[in-house]
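Please check the following.

. . .
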Amino acid sequence: MNEIAIPSETVTLDKFAYDLNFEMLYAGRGLITLTTISVDRPGLRLAGYYSYFDAQRILLIGLSEHEYLRSFSSAERKEKVKKMFECGEIPCVVFSRDLPVFPEFMECARAFKTPVFRSGKVTTSVMADLFVYLNRLLAPVTTKHGVLMDVFGVGIMLTGNSGVGKSETAMELIKRGHRLVADDSVLIKRIENTLVGTAPERIRYFMELRGIGIINVKNMYGSGSVLGEKNIELVMEMEPWQQGKEYDRIGGEKNVEEIFGVKIPKLVIPVSPGRNLAILIEVAARNQRLKSMGYDAAQELIQRTIGR
């Protein structure tokens, strides 16, 4: 059964600052708990409008907010900032453009143990960086049983019941120069309208082969044989050949696998002794690349047939 994780992440201040190239001015509570991809520029809050204010958002102070605060006396500035911090446990505050932090602002941040960072980038660039970072960090996650490979630049997820030969087929692909992303368990994130797959940290680069045991693909075949993450562009379900079952022979069937509302093309590949599945997967990868560029061999054949 697939597990869906609720988007919520707690990161250390050092990691947050390193990932976004921020200067850490005050450590506060020591950790940042992030639950939303939204970032708030609190101009309206500082002006006294607190309807729809979500204290779980990162606050970004740009030039307009900074100049607005600078127009008040020290006491008035402190009152406005304090009221904003009293609304809830704000994850952190980021100042853009290397703006100086008002002493009253830092005093309130210390009182509420709210981390404070600073960036040299302009406000819109910081906003864009945070948007990309939070979208990746808080993307909805599910776990699926399968093997994810990068074949000719196409992310192919092999699925099927245990023992059908997914890992053995993946090993043949690795020997042919393709790259392993995840074996047995694939973590899938939806980022925008794209599904990105990776391996759980504890089993990354490991593979189980029945009769041999556990191997480390990176150590055995080198760093060029593995990849940290890959967009999933094609699902190939492997199943034992069933006598009498009609399998698609033209490629006209439009099967899909739907994950988080994103539909991925899906092929069902019958497994039987003597079939070279690695070559079939390579062909499927090349065919998928052609389809993504607008060419469909099945449709061309149909059009030629109809035209006669």
